[in-house]
Design a protein that fits this description.
The protein is mainly alpha-helical. The chain is built from nine helices and no strands. The protein has two domains: 115 residues, Tetratricopeptide repeat domain (Serine Threonine Protein Phosphatase 5, Tetratricopeptide repeat), CATH 1.25.40; 63 residues, no CATH class.
Length: 179
């Protein structure tokens, strides 16, 4: 019996391993076959979108691979509107393309589907940091840490944000606490 009552799919697992090992082109080929044979395979659509983004040396929002990736993420989101994964991955792709404001909106949509997504909150915190919205970045970082204390290692930017928000001085002394 498969774990968690999910049907095992050896072809999909092999394609996902190709992507994980760095063979995005091989993964794309395998995933396109899977999607062609099973257009309702949500995970294949999501993984294909990720592979299409990774195969690009310098992705742009107008490149054919990006347009195709966004279409696969849209298909996946429509296949299972209760699953935040396709929406979250769209937000990550938008962020990687420098579409920061759009990514914030998309991460919010992912949180509307499933409010307890520490990685979506972390991405939102980092995007706000990149946009120099120090207070919002810190608020979201705090929320992400509450949801997953293990994320602390990925938040090296918090001290800089606190200094820029006037919460600590150059020596790291607390001037005022974040709310």
């Amino acid at each position: 019996m498969p774990l968690f009552k999910r049907k095992q799919n050896k072809e999909y697992e092999a394609a996902a391993r190709l992507l994980a090992s760095g063979d995005a082109a091989g993964a794309i080929e395998a995933l396109e076959t899977i999607v062609e044979q099973n257009p309702d395979h949500m995970n294949a659509h999501v993984t294909l979108a990720i592979a299409l983004m990774e195969v690009q040396e310098s992705p742009t929002k107008d490149s054919p691979q990006t347009i195709e990736a966004f279409a696969h993420l849209s298909t996946a989101a429509n296949l299972d509107p209760d699953d935040p994964v396709p929406v979250f991955n769209l937000g990550v792709s938008q962020r990687n393309l420098g579409m920061l404001e759009e990514s914030l909106i998309t991460f919010e949509k992912a949180l509307e589907i499933e409010e307890r997504q520490p990685l979506a909150i972390l991405h939102m915190a980092e995007v706000n940091y990149e946009l120099e919205r120090w207070e919002e970045a810190l608020r979201l970082a705090k929320l992400a840490l509450v949801r997953d204390p293990g994320l602390e290692e990925s938040m090296g930017w918090v001290r800089v944000a606190m200094r820029k928000a006037g919460m600590i001085d150059d020596e790291g002394n607390v001037i005022r606490r974040p709310e």
